[in-house]
UniProtKB/TrEMBL annotation:
The keyword Electron transport does not apply. Keywords: ATP-binding, Kinase, Membrane, Nucleotide-binding, Transferase. This is sphingosine kinase. The lineage of its organism: Eukaryota, Viridiplantae, Streptophyta, Embryophyta, Tracheophyta. Residues 71-98, 337-359 are annotated as: Disordered. Residues 348-358 have a biased composition (Basic and acidic residues). InterPro entries: ATP-NAD_kinase_N, Diacylglycerol_kinase_cat_dom, Lipid_Phosphate_FormReg, NAD/diacylglycerol_kinase_sf, YegS/DAGK_C.
Length: 510
């Protein structure tokens, strides 16, 4: 089917643009103008899809709200053709800035005609109604101000209707997504860190209508501590990390499929879209909370402490390798049936989704264990990291080969490594180069089972298992954390991937 923008009738009329006489043309999704009468000056242009938020008519004046990269928001950027092909966005640091192009037409009717034409072209591009969930407590407690100062002006300029609700407590976003009337909205947007997005995913998959609910497009505007999903989406499209770029991606409405991982222990199940860690990284992330008064330096400080007193954990990792990784690890002749381990803490959310003994919502992907070729790696382990997207945070590319919808998790496992080499590896995580180290085993899996053991040299101490920034199991003792956390530390935890199950707003790739 042809692009409606290319089928729309072209317009060409004289106008005064930003005060100067010009010949204006609207055609093929671009607004272009050049000096009237062959005067001096270069052709200017705005691409509606990538540089225009919306427009409004005031008598003979048409005000076009722009949001262009490289300082081109006022329309005074020469066209890429006139500049010799410099590419869209104009250069600079790639961050977008608001601007305005004022077109004074020859009559009120002409202004209305041009305004309608621009609005019609923009109407086919993005969502019209959004439900926005704001977490006012996450990160630097900036969610509310980001919504008011950054999000609201842009979505209003784009003519998007919205309903906003703030979260009041943990799992509130999950409750909202579980009960929301999705027929009223074209998408759900989280102004938060990654945790609220994960809650929304879980709420949608606990619904009776989960099959349609999970296809509602989701958006993330970074307002948390890690912001790994937003960074992954922007980086994949060649966009700099910024709140404004994340907002504009949602306004324009481009989407991509997103893998969803089921994390299961016994009868307890939840869904993840970012990562799961066990060992060093989880220990640093969670245990450094007591040094939060140090600000961002707490992670570096506690990392140094943990490297000086490096912990290793006994255990085993079993996995179904992706094609091309069949030689990693050792073959497993017989794998114990996972469904029979029977260990579960049983959460209130889990019990609420049982009706007459039948589970409501998405049961997770089916893993026929007997038909799969499982392999294994045995500890001790320094760190086990499983990533669904490339970035764990703004400045940590933990899974550089991860793709959003390839149907696999990327595993990065450190077993035996000198302590000071561990420190060097983690400092190389910024660009993902650490995976090239001989101390790191990096591979892709369709399913993986973690059998966490106790700390080497500490008979009653286990570790921390952290998923998407939340502790799911903690081994403070032989059976530590069972009452406090979603899962128990010790019994197997299995992860399996459902390819492209969810849908997420994403910038258009350059």
């Amino acid at each position: 089917m042809a692009d409606p923008q290319t089928q729309a009738e072209a317009l060409a009329e004289p106008a005064r643009i930003n005060g100067a006489a010009a010949e204006a043309t609207l055609s093929g999704g671009e607004l272009t103008w050049r000096p009237a009468g062959g005067g001096e000056g270069q052709e200017r242009r705005l691409e509606l899809e990538s540089e225009v938020l919306g427009c409004r008519v005031e008598g003979r004046k048409l005000r076009v709200a722009t949001f262009a990269a490289g300082g081109g928001g006022d329309g005074e950027r020469p066209s890429a053709l006139a500049c010799g092909g410099g590419g869209k966005g104009g250069g600079g640091d790639g961050s977008r800035r608001r601007g305005e192009v004022v077109m004074e037409m020859e009559s009120d009717d002409a202004a209305e005609r041009w305004g309608d034409a621009i609005r019609d072209r923009l109407a086919s591009l993005g969502p019209k109604r959004l439900f926005i969930i704001v977490n006012p407590y996450g990160g630097k407690r900036s969610g509310r101000s980001i919504f008011q100062n950054d999000v609201l002006p842009l979505i209003e300029a784009a003519g998007i209707f919205y309903t906003m609700q703030e979260t009041k407590h943990r799992l509130h976003a999950q409750e909202i997504a579980h009960s929301l009337d999705l027929r009223k909205y074209d998408g759900i947007v989280c102004v938060s860190g990654d945790g609220v997005l994960v809650e929304v995913i879980n709420g949608l998959l606990q619904r009776e209508d989960w099959e349609t609910a999970i296809k509602v497009p989701l958006g993330i505007i970074p307002a948390g501590t890690g912001n790994g999903m937003a960074q992954s989406l922007l980086h994949a499209a060649g966009e700099p990390f910024s709140i404004s770029n994340a907002i504009f991606a949602i306004i324009r409405g481009h989407k991509r499929a997103l893998d969803v991982t089921s994390v299961v222990q016994g009868k307890t199940r939840f869904f993840s879209v970012l990562m799961l860690t066990w060992g060093l990284v989880a220990d640093v992330d969670i245990e450094s909370e007591k040094y939060r008064w140090m600000g961002s330096a707490r992670l570096e400080f506690y990392l140094l402490l943990r490297v000086i007193n490096l912990r290793r954990y006994n255990g085993r990792v079993l996995f179904v390798p992706a094609p091309g990784y069949e030689e990693v690890g050792e073959p497993v002749e017989q794998i114990p049936s996972f469904e029979q381990n029977g260990v579960s803490n049983g959460s209130q959310e889990d019990k609420a989704n049982d009706r007459n003994g039948e589970r409501i919502g998405y049961p997770g992907p089916s893993i026929e264990e007997a038909d799969l070729e499982w392999r294994s790696l045995s500890g001790p382990f320094v760190s086990v990291w499983l990533g669904n997207v490339p970035f764990a945070s703004e400045d940590a590319m933990a899974a550089p080969k991860a793709e959003f919808s390839d149907g696999y998790l990327d595993a990065a496992i450190i077993r035996d490594c000198p302590r000071w080499d561990v420190l060097g590896l983690l400092f190389q995580m910024k660009d993902g180069a650490y995976v090239n180290s001989p101390y790191v085993e990096y591979f892709k899996v369709k399913a993986i089972r973690i059998e966490p053991g106790l700390r080497v040299g500490g008979s009653a101490k286990g570790g921390i298992i952290d998923s998407d920034g939340e502790v799911i199991a903690r081994g403070d003792g032989p059976r530590g954390g069972e009452a406090e956390h979603l899962m128990a530390y010790g019994p197997p935890i299995q992860l399996s991937v459902d390819q492209g199950l969810a849908t997420i707003f994403s910038p258009r790739s350059r």
